C-alpha cells in the first residue's frame, strides 16, 4: 500500500502562514499533541469500560521522548489509534476543511490560541516546529493494519504501510532549524509540565534516578540503591476534580503547595463545582496579602479538562477576583475567540456571576460561623472585600453584611452595627451622622484623644484602598458624612462650651505665632490655628483641609 495525495485543492501552502503567524506561541504544539494523545487514550478507556475492546488495555502511559541526535520529538500513546481511512478523514480532510477559512481570516486573529482549535488545526500546530511530521498508528479495531502518514509541510502527504505493532499512535516531529530550543531536555520538560501537570493520563518524560531501600549493611543500618524509574510529570487526579467530601484541609493545602511551591499557606478556599447551566470545577484560594500595593494578579490558572490553557484570566473572572489564587477548569469557556467576544459570551457572564456569588457566600458563611476568626483575618480579607465592593455592585450588595470597620480600640463592627453605635452620639444636625476616621493613628493621636474625650468614636482607615473606600461609604451609607480627625474637624463637631480650656496667649501673641508659621509653610494648602488644647496634646498643630488632602492624595495616586 502506498498512496500519495494533495491535502488542499483551493489553498496554496498554508504551512508557511501557520509557522510565521504562530511563531511567538509555538510551544503550544506540545499542548495540542499531548492533548490528542490523552483524548485517544480516554476514548480507549471509555470503549473498554463499555466492553467494546477485546484484550487487555495494558499500560496507557503517554510518552514524550527526545532524540537530540536525530533531532526528533516523539509523542506516543496507547489510545484508540487510527486506520488509514481515519487518518485520511481526521488528519487530511477535517483539519483542512478549515484551511480555506483560515487563510481568509488569519489576518484578524490576535494570537495563536484564536487560530488553533477555531480552525481545527490542533494537530497541524506540529508544523510550527517541525519540517517533517510522521504519524505511525495502529487502530484498536480487530484486524486493523498499521499505517504511516508523512507530510513535509507542503500540501502533499504520503500514506503507506506503518510499523507499529501495538495499538496506539506515535507522532514524530523532525524539528526544524528555527525550533531547536525544543530539543533541549529541560526546556521540553518545562513546557510539558506547564501544560500537562494535571492531565488525566500519566505522561512520561524519560526516566529519573531515585533511591530505594536495599537491605542493611554490616552494622544493621538501612542501605539504599539507585534505581531508574519512569519520570511521570503529572498528577492525574488533582484536588479540584475530586468531591469536596473526599478532601480534608490538609489535601487543599497540599494542592496549594503543588500549585505555588514558594507561597505562604492560604487563609481559606472555595471549592467550585457546578455542571448546569455550564460546567465548571476549580478551587479558589484566598492568599495572605502582605502588602496591598504589591498584590500579584493573574495567579489563577485556567484549565480546560485538565489541560492548562492560560493564567491570563482577565475577561473570565471579575477584576477583584483576580487577587485570588487557584484553578478554574471549564470546557465551556470559549478559548479560541477574541477577548471582546469572550466578555460578551453568555457562559462567561454566567460563570462570572456564579464565582462572585460563591465567593460572597463563602465569606458570609465564615463571618457567621466564626466571627472571631473572621476578624482576625480581616487584615487580609478586608483589602479584597473593599476592592470587590468598589468595583462590583452585586458583590457590594452581599458584602454589606460582612464588611467590617475597625476603630482605634481594635474593635470590629459591621456597617450596620457601627451605624447603631454612633447614631445617637455623633448625630450632628438634621439626622446627619458623622463618622470620624484616622488615616494615621500614630500621628493623629492627639486628635483621636480629643475626639474620644468628647465621646466620639474614631475608625481606622489607614490602607491605600481605604482612601477610595471612605468615599464609597459616604455615598452608600445614608445620611453619613465621613471626616478625618484633625483640629478643624474637631472644632466643628464638638460643642465649644464643652471646651473649658482657656487660651493663655493674648490676641497679638496668637497673631504673631500664626504669622511665623504661615511664612514657613504653604498658606494655601495648610491652615494654621492657635487654640487651647488639653495638657497632653501637642502645643502646635498644622492641618490640611480635608478637600486639599484628598486632592493631594489623588494626585499622588496618579489621579486615582
Ligand atoms: P481536535 O483534537 O480538536 O479534534 P486535532 O487537529 O487536534 O483536532 O486532531 C484532529 C483529529 O485527529 C482528532 O479529532 C482525532 O480524531 C485524530 N487524532 C489526532 N491525534 C490522534 C491520536 N494521537 N490518536 C488518535 N487519533 C488522533
Ligand atoms: Mg486536538
UniProtKB/TrEMBL annotation:
GO terms for molecular function: ATP binding; ATP hydrolysis activity; ATP-dependent protein folding chaperone; unfolded protein binding. ATP binds at residues 32, 36, 77, 82, 97-98, 169, 339. Keywords: ATP-binding, Chaperone, Cytoplasm, Nucleotide-binding, Stress response. SMART domains: HATPase_c. It comes from the Bacteria. Residues 25-179 form the Histidine kinase/HSP90-like ATPase domain. Belongs to the heat shock protein 90 family. This is Chaperone protein HtpG.
Amino acid at each position: 500500500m502506498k498512496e500519495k495525495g494533495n491535502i488542499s485543492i483551493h489553498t496554496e501552502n498554508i504551512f508557511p502562514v501557520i509557522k510565521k503567524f504562530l511563531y511567538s506561541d509555538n510551544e503550544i504544539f506540545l499542548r495540542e499533541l499531548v492533548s490528542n494523545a490523552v483524548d485517544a487514550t480516554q476514548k480507549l478507556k471509555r470503549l473498554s469500560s463499555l466492553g467494546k475492546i477485546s484484550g487487555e488495555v495494558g499500560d496507557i502511559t503517554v510518552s514524550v521522548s527526545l532524540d537530540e541526535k536525530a533531532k526528533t520529538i516523539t509523542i506516543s500513546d496507547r489510545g484508540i489509534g487510527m486506520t488509514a481511512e481515519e487518518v485520511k478523514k481526521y488528519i487530511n480532510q477535517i483539519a483542512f476543511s478549515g484551511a480555506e477559512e483560515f487563510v481568509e481570516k488569519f489576518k484578524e486573529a490576535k494570537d495563536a490560541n484564536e487560530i488553533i482549535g477555531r480552525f481545527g488545526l490542533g494537530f497541524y500546530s506540529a508544523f510550527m516546529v517541525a519540517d517533517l511530521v510522521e504519524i505511525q498508528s495502529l487502530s484498536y479495531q480487530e484486524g486493523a493494519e498499521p499505517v504511516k502518514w508523512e507530510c513535509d509541510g507542503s500540501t502533499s502527504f504520503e500514506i503507506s504501510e506503518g510499523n507499529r505493532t501495538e495499538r496506539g499512535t506515535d507522532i514524530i516531529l523532525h524539528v526544524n532549524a528555527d525550533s531547536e530550543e525544543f530539543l533541549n531536555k529541560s526546556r521540553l520538560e518545562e513546557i510539558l509540565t506547564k501544560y500537562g501537570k494535571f492531565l488525566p493520563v500519566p505522561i512520561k518524560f524519560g526516566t529519573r534516578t531515585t533511591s530505594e531501600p536495599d537491605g542493611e549493611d554490616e552494622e544493621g543500618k538501612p542501605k539504599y540503591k539507585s534505581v531508574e524509574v519512569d519520570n511521570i510529570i503529572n498528577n492525574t487526579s488533582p484536588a479540584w476534580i475530586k468531591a469536596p467530601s473526599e478532601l480534608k484541609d490538609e489535601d487543599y493545602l497540599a494542592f496549594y503547595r503543588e500549585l505555588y511551591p514558594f507561597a505562604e499557606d492560604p487563609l481559606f478556599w472555595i471549592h467550585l463545582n457546578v455542571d448546569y447551566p455550564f460546567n465548571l470545577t476549580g478551587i479558589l484560594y484566598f492568599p495572605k496579602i502582605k502588602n496591598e500595593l504589591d498584590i500579584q494578579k493573574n495567579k489563577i490558572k485556567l484549565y480546560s479538562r485538565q489541560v492548562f490553557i492560560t493564567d491570563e484570566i482577565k475577561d473570565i473572572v471579575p477584576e477583584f477576583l483576580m487577587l485570588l489564587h487557584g484553578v478554574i477548569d471549564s470546557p465551556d469557556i470559549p478559548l479560541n475567540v477574541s477577548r471582546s467576544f469572550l466578555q460578551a459570551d453568555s457562559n462567561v457572564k454566567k460563570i462570572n456571576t456564579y464565582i462572585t456569588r460563591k465567593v460572597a457566600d463563602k465569606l458570609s458563611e465564615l463571618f457567621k460561623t466564626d466571627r472571631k476568626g473572621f476578624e482576625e483575618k480581616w487584615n487580609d480579607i478586608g483589602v479584597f472585600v473593599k476592592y470587590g465592593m468598589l468595583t462590583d455592585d452585586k458583590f457590594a450588595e452581599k458584602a454589606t453584611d460582612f464588611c467590617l470597620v475597625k476603630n482605634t480600640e481594635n474593635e470590629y463592627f459591621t456597617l450596620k452595627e457601627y451605624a447603631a453605635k454612633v447614631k445617637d452620639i455623633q448625630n450632628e444636625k438634621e439626622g446627619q451622622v458623622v463618622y470620624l476616621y484616622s488615616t494615621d493613628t500614630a500621628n493623629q493621636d492627639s486628635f483621636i484623644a480629643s475626639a474620644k474625650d468628647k465621646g466620639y468614636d474614631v475608625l481606622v482607615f489607614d490602607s491605600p484602598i481605604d482612601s477610595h473606600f471612605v468615599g464609597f461609604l459616604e455615598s452608600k451609607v445614608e445620611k453619613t458624612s465621613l471626616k478625618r480627625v484633625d483640629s478643624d474637624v474637631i472644632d466643628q463637631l464638638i460643642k465649644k462650651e464643652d471646651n473649658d480650656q482657656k487660651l493663655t496667649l493674648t490676641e497679638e501673641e496668637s497673631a504673631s505665632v500664626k504669622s511665623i508659621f504661615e511664612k514657613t509653610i504653604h498658606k494655601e494648602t495648610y491652615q494654621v490655628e492657635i487654640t487651647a488644647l488639653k495638657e497632653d496634646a501637642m502645643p502646635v498643630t498644622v492641618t490640611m483641609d480635608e478637600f486639599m488632602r484628598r486632592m493631594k492624595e489623588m494626585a499622588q495616586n496618579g489621579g486615582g
